[in-house]
Write a structure and sequence with these properties.
The chain has about 800 residues and is of the alpha/beta class. It folds into three domains: about 190 residues, no CATH class; about 170 residues; about 280 residues, P-loop containing nucleotide triphosphate hydrolases (Rossmann fold, 3-Layer(aba) Sandwich). The protein is about 50% helix and about 15% strand. Strand 19 and strand 20 form a beta hairpin. Helix 7 runs antiparallel to helix 10. The longest helix is centred in the middle third of the chain and has 83 residues. One of its GO terms (cellular component) is plasma membrane. InterPro entries: Bact_polysacc_biosynth/exp (IPR050445), P-loop_NTPase (IPR027417), Wzc-like_C (IPR005702). Its EC number is 2.7.10.2.
Length: about 800
C-alpha cells in the first residue's frame, strides 16, 4: 500500500477490511453465511445416515501362512544345522518368500479359487424391494454345462421362482415365463445350464431368486483387487493374507481355498520337478553305462595292442632289463679285453711266461681252458728251469718246445672260440639293448594315451557314482517331501470394517462444510462485480476515502441535522471528515469533483448528501450539476430543471451568476443546475468560461461540489478535472464490474485527476456478507435499518425483516 493510501485509510470508517487479516476475514465471512453451512452439514448428515442404513457391513478377513526358509550359504548351497554344506536338489531348494507372494497373488491361482467355490454365480433372494445375497445356504445350485463365450462384466441375470419340489419358473419378460424341471439342461443366450436342488431347498418354499452369472475372468479380477498378501517383517517368514467381504463365510473360504490351492500347486510343482529330475538321472545313468562299457572296451583293446598289463610296472621292468643288459654288456667287454690281453701275450713270445689269469676274468668258468692255461704255464716254467742249466740248443728242449707249441695252438684256438662267443654275445646284448630303449621311448606316448582313456573312464565313473547317490537322495526326499508353507492361522473374520458411523459422520461433516465453502468460493469467483473493499485495495493503488452503506429511503437526501433517522448520515459525516483531511485544509474555495465509471453508481446521490453534510457543518456549499447530458441534482433537491444554469453561463448567454444559483431547502447549500441540455457540452467545458465560473464561486463558497458525468462514457469529467482540488471516484458494491479497476489504474497512472480517491458505495452487508455481521463503533447496518446508529431510534424488528436477513446469509 502506498503512503498516500495508508494516510487515507486512517480516515475511513473504523473496522474496515483493511484492518482485518486475510484469515480472520475468511473466517468471519464463513461465519456470516452460517445458515448455508448449517444446511449443507444437515444434508450431508442425513445422507450419511441413509448411507449407513443402506450399506451392508463389510468384514475384514485375515489368515497367516509361515514359510520354511533355510539359511542360504555361498555358492547356492544350504547349510545344515552342523554348518556343513550339502548339495542342492530340486526338492530342498530354498524358497524366496517374495516370489511366493507373487504366486499367491497371481490370477491363475485366484481363477482356480473362483472355479472351486463357483463364485462366478451369485444368488440373491428377493422380497419386494429388498435383496439378500445367499452363499452356502442357497436352495438351488447353478451349473453351466456349455458356454458360448457371451458372458460380460455385468453378467446374465436369471429370475427363478421355486414353484414346487419338482419344477421352477424362469421369468422372462421377452419370451414369457416358462417352467422347467430341476437338473434339466436349459439353453440360453450365454450357453446351456441347469439347476439342481440343495439341502437348503425346503427352507425357501416359493422363494424368488435372482441368479447372476458372470464371466469368471472378471470375477477373478474383482476378488484379486480385494485380496492382499503382505510380508510384514522380512526377518520373519510370516505372510499375512487379508481381504474384505460382506459375507464373512465367503471371505474365509476364499482365503482358506487360496492357501490350500497354493500349497497343493506348490507340492505338485515340487513333485513334478523331482520326478523330472529322477527321470533325467535314470536316463543319464543308462547313457553312462553304455559310455563306460565303450570306454572299458577301448582300454582293453589298447592294452592288447601294445602288450600292456600295467604300464608303470612294465616300464619299470624295461628299465631294470636295460640296466641288467648294460651290466652284462660291460662284463662281456671286460672279458673281451682280457681275451685280447691274453692274445697279445701269446703273440709276443712263444716261450714267455704267462701271467696268471685273474679270478674275475670269467675264464676260470671254463675248466678245460683253465687246465690248458695252467698246463701251458707249467711247461713254460719247466723250460725256463731247464734253460737255466741247459743251453737252448740242447735237444732236450725239442719235446718241450713242441709240447708248448701244441699247447699254445690249442689254447689259442680255445681263446678264439671264447672270443667269438663273447663277440656274438656282445652283439646280441647290444641289439637287445636297442630294442629295450625303443620300448622305453614308446612308454610316454603309451602312458599319455592310456591316461587320457583312463581319465575319460574315471570321469564317467564319477558322474555315474554321483548320479547314483543323487537318485537315492532325490528319491528319499520325494518319498518324504512336505510343503514349504504351513498355515499358522486359518482365515478368520474380525469386527465390521465398514461402514464406521464415526468415520462416515465425520466425513459428512467435512463434506458439508467443504461443499458450503466451495459454493461460496465458486460464487465469489464467478461474480464479476466488485463486492468487497479488499478487491479494490488489492487491484488499485488509489486510496479509499470512505464507505457508504446501502440505504432504502423515500427521499434521496438521507442526511439530517442532529439525530437523524438513517444510520448512513453518520457515515457521510465520517466521509466529510476524511474529505477535510484529503484537502489538508479548511480554507474557503475547496473544489471536489465526483465521477464514476458508468451511470447508477451513486455519484449524484453521494455528492448531494455530502454537500448537505458540509452545509450542516456551517460550511457554505454549492453543488454544480455538471452532468450536462443527464442531470439529476435538480431532481434530488426538487428544483426547477428548466431554470437557467451552467450551460447558459458557459455558452455566454448570461454572465449574471447570481441569477443562475438556486437556493435549496438546506441552509447554507446552494445549487447551480445545468440548465437546458445543450448539444455540445464537451466543447463548452473546454472554454475558459468554466475556469471563470469556478473562480467566481471560490470567492463566495467554502466548498464547491461538482457532480460530473461518468468518465467511462464521456470525457467531460476529465475536462472538468483541471478546475478541481480533489477527485472522488464512485464504486458501487455489486454493480461496478471488476474490469473497471484496470481503467481506474490507467487513470491514476496518467495523473488525470488531482488527489484521486475512491468511495465504496451501496454496501449491503447482509447480502454480500460484507463485514460479516459486525458493525462499526456506531453500529452501522444496511438494508432497512437492520443495524442502527447508536444515536438513532431502533425500529421494531418484524418476522419479515428477520426472515429476509436470514435468507440473505445463504
Amino acid at each position: 500500500m502506498s503512503k498516500k493510501t495508508a494516510q487515507l485509510t486512517a480516515f475511513a470508517l473504523p473496522g474496515g477490511e483493511s484492518e482485518t487479516s486475510d484469515i480472520s476475514r475468511l473466517i468471519k465471512k464463513y461465519i456470516f453465511h452460517w445458515p448455508l453451512f448449517l444446511v449443507a452439514v444437515v444434508l450431508a448428515m442425513v445422507g450419511a445416515y441413509f448411507y449407513i442404513k443402506a450399506t451392508k457391513p463389510t468384514y475384514p478377513i485375515v489368515a497367516t501362512l509361515e514359510f520354511k526358509v533355510p539359511v542360504a550359504g555361498e555358492g547356492g548351497t544350504v547349510l545344515n544345522k552342523s554348518g556343513t554344506e550339502t548339495q542342492l536338489d530340486p526338492i530342498s531348494n530354498p524358497v524366496i518368500v517374495e516370489n511366493e507372494i507373487e504366486v499367491m497373488q497371481s490370477k491363475k491361482l485366484m481363477y482356480q479359487v473362483i472355479m472351486d467355490l463357483q463364485l462366478w454365480a451369485r444368488y440373491d433372494l428377493t422380497s419386494g424391494a429388498t435383496k439378500k445375497e445367499l452363499y452356502k445356504n442357497t436352495p438351488v445350485r447353478f451349473s453351466l454345462i456349455t458356454e458360448n463365450g457371451s458372458l460380460d462384466g455385468l453378467g446374465e441375470k436369471l429370475e427363478i421362482i421355486l414353484k414346487d419340489s419338482k419344477t421352477f419358473t424362469l421369468a422372462d419378460e421377452k419370451d414369457g415365463d416358462k417352467d422347467y424341471a430341476y437338473s434339466t439342461p436349459i439353453k440360453s443366450r450365454f450357453g446351456t445350464w441347469q439347476l439342481a436342488k440343495t439341502g437348503e431347498f425346503n427352507n425357501y418354499p416359493g422363494a424368488t431368486l435372482v441368479i447372476t452369472v458372470r464371466d469368471p475372468d472378471i470375477v477373478t479380477d474383482d476378488f484379486m483387487g480385494k485380496v492382499k498378501v503382505d510380508l510384514e517383517n522380512k526377518d520373519a517368514p510370516f505372510v499375512i493374507l487379508s481381504t474384505t467381504d460382506q459375507i464373512p463365510t465367503r471371505g474365509k473360504d476364499v482365503l482358506n481355498t487360496l492357501m490350500d490351492r497354493y500349497k497343493t500347486d506348490a507340492m505338485t510343482d515340487k513333485n513334478k520337478e523331482a520326478e523330472n529330475t529322477i527321470n533325467f538321472i535314470n536316463s543319464r545313468l543308462d547313457s553312462l553305462r553304455s559310455e563306460l562299457a565303450v570306454s572299458e572296451k577301448e582300454i582293453e583293446r589298447y592294452k592288447s595292442s601294445v602288450g600292456m598289463t600295467d604300464i608303470s610296472s612294465q616300464a619299470q621292468g624295461f628299465r631294470d632289463i636295460k640296466q641288467l643288459n648294460i651290466r652284462t654288456l660291460n662284463e662281456v667287454d671286460i672279458q673281451l679285453s682280457i681275451i685280447n690281453g691274453i692274445e697279445r701275450s701269446l703273440a709276443s713270445s712263444n716261450h714267455a711266461i704267462l701271467e696268471k689269469l685273474p679270478a674275475s676274468s670269467g675264464l676260470l668258468d671254463d675248466p678245460t681252458l683253465q687246465a690248458l692255461y695252467d698246463k701251458l704255464g707249467d711247461r713254460i716254467a719247466a723250460r725256463e728251469r731247464l734253460l737255466a742249466t741247459v743251453p737252448e740248443a740242447n735237444p732236450m728242449f725239442t719235446p718241450i718246445n713242441e709240447e708248448i707249441k701244441s699247447l699254445r695252438e690249442t689254447f689259442d684256438e680255445k681263446v678264439k672260440g671264447i672270443k667269438s662267443a663273447l663277440l656274438t654275445k656282445r652283439q646280441t646284448l647290444q641289439s637287445f639293448g636297442g630294442g629295450i630303449q625303443k620300448s622305453l621311448e614308446l612308454v610316454p606316448d603309451q602312458d599319455r594315451t592310456y591316461n587320457s582313456m583312463k581319465r575319460n573312464q574315471e570321469s564317467k565313473e564319477k558322474i555315474f557314482t554321483f548320479l547314483l547317490e543323487k537318485r537315492e537322495q532325490v528319491s528319499l526326499r520325494y518319498a518324504s517331501s512336505i510343503s514349504d508353507a504351513e498355515v499358522v492361522d486359518d482365515a478368520h473374520a474380525g469386527k465390521s470394517k465398514w461402514p464406521l458411523p464415526a468415520v462416515i459422520y465425520g466425513a459428512a461433516l467435512i463434506l458439508g462444510l467443504g461443499a458450503a465453502a466451495a459454493i461460496l468460493y465458486a460464487r465469489e469467483m464467478m461474480n464479476e462485480q466488485i463486492t468487497h473493499r479488499r478487491q479494490i485495495e488489492d487491484a488499485v493503488s488509489v486510496p479509499v476515502l470512505g464507505e457508504l452503506s446501502y440505504q432504502e429511503s423515500d427521499t434521496p437526501i438521507v442526511v439530517t441535522q442532529g439525530r437523524g433517522k438513517f444510520a448512513i448520515g453518520e457515515q457521510f459525516r465520517v466521509l466529510r471528515t476524511n474529505l477535510s483531511h484529503l484537502h489538508a485544509n479548511n480554507d474557503p474555495g475547496r473544489v471536489t469533483l465526483f465521477t464514476s465509471s458508468i451511470g447508477s453508481e451513486g455519484k449524484s446521490f453521494v455528492s448531494s448528501n455530502l454537500a448537505v453534510t458540509l452545509a450542516y457543518a456551517s460550511r457554505k456549499t454549492i453543488i454544480l450539476e455538471m452532468d450536462l447530458r443527464k442531470p439529476k441534482v435538480s431532481g434530488i433537491f426538487d428544483l426547477n430543471p428548466d431554470h437557467p444554469g451552467i450551460g447558459d453561463f458557459l455558452s455566454g448567454k448570461t454572465s449574471d451568476l447570481g441569477a443562475l444559483i438556486q437556493k435549496s431547502n438546506i441552509p447554507g447549500l446552494d445549487v447551480l443546475s445545468c440548465g437546458p441540455i445543450l448539444p455540445n457540452p464537451s466543447e463548452l467545458l473546454e472554454t475558459e468560461r468554466l475556469d471563470e465560473l469556478i473562480n467566481l464561486l471560490k470567492t463566495t463558497y467554502d466548498d464547491i461540489i461538482i457532480d460530473s458525468p461518468p468518465i467511462h462514457l464521456v470525457t467531460d469529467a476529465l475536462i472538468i478535472a483541471r478546475t478541481a482540488d480533489a477527485s472522488v471516484y464512485m464504486i458501487r458494491q455489486g454493480y461496478t464490474m471488476k474490469e473497471e479497476l484496470d481503467f481506474i489504474n490507467e487513470i491514476d497512472k496518467a495523473k488525470r485527476f488531482p488527489k484521486f480517491t475512491i468511495v465504496f458505495n451501496g454496501i449491503r452487508r447482509d447480502k454480500f456478507g460484507y463485514g460479516y455481521g459486525y458493525g462499526y463503533s456506531y453500529g452501522y447496518g444496511g438494508y432497512k435499518n437492520s443495524y442502527y446508529n447508536s444515536y438513532t431510534d431502533r425500529e421494531k424488528e418484524t418476522f419479515g425483516t428477520i426472515l429476509k436477513g436470514f435468507l440473505r446469509r445463504f
